[in-house]
């Protein structure tokens, strides 16, 4: 019973939409983001949901804009900066429009320079 | 001969008044001139009484813009960086120079969304749900306004069909949530976004990642 309103809505909107969708796989991204907004403590669940979408698109061609970066940011906030930098690089490669911001994020992931002993 | 000589300029004038495929009431010259590839969606200004509305509405903007063919910056990352940079207040962000945001994020354009209404009015006989949004797209390079839209929806449950299949289906989705005494505004927000971005002669032309890019000049 709970599942039908989004389904019929999607069908209705789909009928009215011009054919401009570039075939991206969002995989429930919007719902995951909405849950995070409603519960800011749900960062881990948000990260897991993003990871599921990325894992089912191993060649990256259907990964929507921002998803590699968003997952990288979740890793960054968790202190996993080396892994985060890898996802920021993927975002930059997949979507060159993000280059300036991703370069900034990659620099933020670099380990601090060692203090001279 | 003299009369014939007047014909071409007269025809040109007439044609100028009604160019074929022109967008009534909407000038796309600036938007097409800039042809933005990337859009930065900044935090939403919320004029409603529901404090959760801005975050919820923000979460609905990425997908329709990206499906229109634009690169959309990741909203959660953007929100986090803005808070770090002292730009956590949506009102201040909307007043800030768009060129500064354009440079900071490398964004071609910035989308400013405002919630004017996001209300449920409870009554014994009928409960109504109402949303009202403004959307403004500004250039990240010049700061100029490139496009804007306004969308408002009111839903009042009714057992009768409105005669519009899409409206009826949205209505059913909202009605199902009202029964639970916790109205779900998301179907109305999604529908408003869809109309704002897709409506011919009013919405956004297809961006560079859409196969329609550059081919939809008769529609936008």
UniProtKB/TrEMBL annotation, chain A:
* Record-given protein name: DUF4810 domain-containing protein
Which PROSITE patterns would you find in this protein's record? PROKAR_LIPOPROTEIN
Signal peptide residue numbers: 1-21
Domain of life here? Bacteria
Whose protein is this, by species? Mesoterricola silvestris
Q: Say if the entry is tagged with keyword Signal.
A: yes
Q: Which UniProt keywords apply?
A: Signal
In terms of InterPro entries, this protein maps to: UCP020555_TPR-like
UniProtKB/TrEMBL annotation, chain B:
Species name: Mesoterricola silvestris
Protein name in the entry: Lipoprotein
User: Could you confirm whether the keyword Lipoprotein appears in this record?
Assistant: yes
Keywords, comma-separated and alphabetical: Lipoprotein, Signal
Q: From which residue to which does the signal peptide run? A: 1-22
Carries keyword S-adenosyl-L-methionine?
A: no
Q: What single Pfam family name could you report for this chain, choosing any that match?
A: GNA1162-like
Q: Where is this region: Disordered?
A: 201-220
Instruction: Cite the InterPro entries for this sequence.
Output: GNA1162-like
Which Gene3D superfamilies did the record assign?
ABC-type transport auxiliary lipoprotein component
